[in-house]
Amino acid sequence: MKSLGAPATGGVRFAPSPTGRFHIGNLRTAWISYKLSRQLQLPWIVRFEDIDRPRVLAGAQEQQLADMRALGLVPDQVLVQSDFEERHWQLLIRAIEDGVIYPCDCSRKEVQQALSGLASAPHAELAAYSGHCRPLSRRELKSVDSIAWRFRMPLESGIQDFIVARTSPQLSENGASDRASFTPSYHWACAIDDFDGRYDWIVRSSDLAHALPL
Ligand code: GLU
Ligand code: ZN
Prior knowledge:
The protein is an alpha/beta fold.
């Protein structure tokens, strides 16, 4: 499904993932978000977050729209996140050029091992990376299929250098842009799209509260 029209700016946005049928909690968030938009007389924007490809289910977007419509929740605009992938990609390249992200070839196992022995950090979920690949001089990557690009967070933020995307290692080694290997993280795509949308309000479920600092 393509987005309908150019992205609106402003409004209240609701961003479901088309990974299955809505449960009561999704509908609750949708309803609150819709009601807020009516109260404030702002457009209600529904943005389907379909970039987590393996989890996307064919037909789920249409089903979710139908379920919302049955409750009188009709979007003023429908956006589909994958339509903005070029923008997510362009900003990745810019972030590399600006040095605000760096390549990390640590395996999940290595990330775990580097952490054992450290006292548990305040934001345990977020503080899960040791910063192993942070030093600028460390450019020799292991031979791996894919690398993670991590955001160089200010140390005082207390937030780990979280992953913004995965690509093939060639992008780090020789700048060859293998766009097909590009997989943005939820945090990256969502922050860019929310910024570009200039929404007045974002309504999301509280199970995402831990992701807010990122
Ligand atoms: N797509 C996310 C979800 O359904 C919500 C993202 C957001 O509201 O920021 O859990
Ligand atoms: Zn690393």
